Amino acid sequence: MAEAAPKKPAQASESVRMAILCAVGTMLANGIFFVLSYAYYKAHATNAAVGAGIGDVYVMDVKAMANAREAFLVLTLIGGALAYVATRVPREFGHGLALLLGLANLAAAYGAFDKSLPMVMPVTLLVAGLVMPVLVYLSWQKSRSAWAFLIALVAVFGGIGFFGAPKVRQLVGIGLWTAMIMPMLTIETVIALAVIRRDYAR
């Protein structure tokens, strides 16, 4: 008991440091998005004076821009909070999310088969959905190869999901920010699994 006492201030300091990093990252992401969203909606402004003979008068969709910023803020706040949790209990959090992603892939595979989407998508989702839970179990048992394969698989799906979110939105008929939830969870999973890399040093 006497040896554990000196570690508490260090643990508290590390916890505060990670909270600050997550908060700064969230604010930075929103600052960048604030600028980029303005540039995007300005570039897609509509000409409100077409046919009126008064010259070009372009109007930005301010409401849509505000909604996009609000949705991004909520998404990044959730992401920042999850990133903090991922650094505090990385082993449980990372494996739990990876298992959840595997089950989500199985559900998505069923939906893709049901909607008769191109065969590559449902088969890929089905294989990933079957493999992920097995890798989670083996990684939990401290298998280095399973951990490496799992983190690589999740990272690949995260990248595909991030850049494919607009297409998923169109195919499934959901909002863009809803389509971004799954890629965000894969990023959190990768963070959590990467934090515990020292557990697989041997």
Explain how this protein is built.
By secondary structure, the protein is mostly helical. It folds into two domains: about 1-70; about 90-200. The protein contains seven helices and two strands. The chain has helices spanning about 5-45, 60-90, 90-115, 120-140, 145-170, 175-180, 180-195; strands at about 45, 60. The chain has a two-stranded antiparallel sheet. Helix 4 (about 120-140) packs antiparallel against helix 5 (about 145-170) and helix 5 (about 145-170) packs antiparallel against helix 7 (about 180-195). The radius of gyration is 22 Å and the shape is flat. The model is unreliable at about 50-55 (pLDDT under 50).
Distance between the termini: 29 Å
Basic shape? flat
Based on DSSP secondary structure assignment, what is the total number of beta strands?
Answer: 2
Please, how many helices?
A: 7
As for the number of domains, it is 2
Overall pLDDT score: 80
- Range of strand content: under 5%
Residues in helix, %? over 70%
Supply Rg: 22 Å
Structural class: mainly alpha
Annotation keywords:
single chain; mainly alpha; two-stranded antiparallel sheet; 7 helices; 2 strands; 78% helix
In short:
The protein has about 200 residues and is mostly helical.
What is the secondary structure topology, with strand pairs?
Layout: H1 7-43, E1 46-47, E2 58-59, H2 62-88, H3 90-114, H4 120-140, H5 144-172, H6 176-179, H7 181-195
Antiparallel strand pairs: 1-2
Helix pairs in contact: 1-2, 2-3, 2-7, 3-4, 3-7, 4-5, 5-7
